[in-house]
């Protein structure tokens, strides 16, 4: 059994965010975040600068003219998108060791996370969430299973036993993790979000992504991630050891959604994943 110390060790082993990314999160998290401040920080990081310019000049944004300055890119992309991109880059670094590790296929897992990110954002758009918040839906989807990466890295043998149980039996994932490890990936993910000082809302979203607590009629970030996660399992988009299941009817009801409506909203998912992949991975 993992004890409390081992769990903390597991979280400790997750690399800290680069100073640039940490700074960007801090600036973007402020009320009235200033573009100038952000530009100043980004300019100190040549890799991120190059990525942002590449992103803004990709077909995804369809700019009529090539954008050459980082200042202009930040103004055009907006503070939130820049934050999202910086964080995505940092997260991607955690997935860099591609390929299979035992039963765990990193490439399929990354696709699951991207699928969940893109799906959450599509749901936010469809449910008329304010455009300024769309990126939060994306990033929460991208990070929801980050606890698994920590388990895989820090407790490979113990975690391999969990995967074995999941592959054979019909025990629920969180239950199997709690039983065999003394903690689950949702809780560990929340601790990582705290360590990275991302936001309390995001931490809560990660903690509750399998069982979102009741939170009103509007589509919250955690409800979007919950739905998008199940959709990925149902449609076999990537793989993350979540068995296909039905959406909780109470959640559908509360949000005035049906399975058919969700399928319709998420129709462009595969194409959008492809686009997200192109700019995140290049
Ligand atoms: Fe999960
Ligand atoms: Fe997941």
Overall description:
α4 crosses α5. The chain is globular, with a radius of gyration of 19 Å. The chain has a two-stranded antiparallel sheet with strand order 1-2. It is built from 17 helices and two strands. Helix content is 66%, strand content 1%. With 282 residues, the chain is mostly helical. The termini are far apart. β1 and β2 form a beta hairpin. Bound molecules: fe (ii) ion (FE2) (2 copies). One fe (ii) ion (FE2) binds next to α7.
The computed structural class is mainly alpha
Order of helices and strands: HHHHHHEEHHHHHHHHHHH
**Low-pLDDT residue spans:** none
Distance between the termini: 40 Å
Give a quick precis of the structure.
The protein is mainly α and 282 residues long.
Structural key phrases:
mainly alpha; two-stranded antiparallel ribbon; 17 helices; 2 strands; binds fe (ii) ion
Describe the SSE topology.
Layout: H1 4-13, H2 19-29, H3 35-43, H4 46-56, H5 70-77, H6 79-94, E1 100-101, E2 104-105, H7 106-126, H8 134-143, H9 146-154, H10 156-168, H11 173-181, H12 185-195, H13 200-207, H14 221-234, H15 249-255, H16 259-265, H17 269-281
Antiparallel strand pairs: 1-2
Helix pairs in contact: 1-9, 1-12, 2-3, 2-6, 3-5, 4-5, 6-8, 7-8, 7-14, 7-17, 8-14, 9-10, 9-12, 10-11, 12-13, 13-14
Bound molecules: fe (ii) ion (2 copies).
């Amino acid at each position: 059994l993992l004890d409390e110390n081992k769990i903390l060790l597991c979280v400790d082993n997750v690399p800290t965010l680069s100073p640039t990314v940490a700074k960007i999160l801090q600036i973007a998290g402020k009320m009235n975040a200033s573009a100038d401040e952000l530009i100043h920080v980004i300019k100190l990081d040549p890799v991120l600068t190059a990525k942002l310019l590449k992103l803004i000049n990709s077909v995804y944004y369809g700019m009529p003219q090539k954008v050459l300055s980082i200042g202009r890119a930040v103004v055009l992309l907006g503070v939130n998108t820049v934050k999202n991109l910086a964080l995505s880059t940092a997260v991607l670094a955690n997935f860099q060791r591609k390929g299979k590790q035992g039963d765990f296929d990193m490439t399929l897992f990354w696709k699951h996370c991207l699928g969940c990110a893109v799906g959450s954002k599509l749901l936010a758009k469809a449910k008329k969430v304010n455009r300024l918040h769309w990126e939060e839906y994306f990033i929460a989807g991208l990070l929801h299973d980050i606890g698994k990466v920590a388990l895989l890295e820090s407790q490979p043998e113990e975690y391999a036993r969990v995967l074995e149980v999941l592959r054979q039996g019909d025990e629920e994932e969180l239950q199997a993790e709690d039983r065999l490890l003394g903690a689950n990936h949702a809780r560990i993910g929340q601790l990582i979000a705290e360590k990275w000082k991302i936001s309390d809302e995001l931490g809560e979203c990660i903690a509750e992504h399998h069982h979102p607590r009741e939170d009103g009629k509007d589509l919250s970030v955690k409800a979007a991630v919950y739905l998008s996660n199940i959709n990925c399992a149902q449609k076999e988009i990537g793989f993350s050891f979540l068995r296909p299941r039905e959406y909780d009817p109470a959640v559908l009801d509360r949000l005035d959604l049906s399975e058919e409506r969700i399928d319709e909203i998420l129709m462009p998912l595969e194409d959008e994943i492809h686009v997200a992949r192109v700019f995140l991975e290049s």
